[in-house]
């Protein structure tokens, strides 16, 4: 059953992630442009499909003055 309520969207600025590798090799790769983002485009497409999926959504956020519906799934909200 889908529950419906209004929500206010407040964007926040994300801070860059720091390298968890103590020798800095991940940062060196990022600086040199050698990192690969394989699968990122598909992930973005899949998340967009989930945001538009009315059938399996657990909740609907009504966003903004025009109350644009954003469909959400509890598994993503809990992550």
From TrEMBL:
It comes from the Eukaryota. Gene3D superfamilies: Potassium Channel Kv1.1, Chain A (3.30.710.10). Residues 1-33 are annotated as: Disordered. This is BTB domain-containing protein.
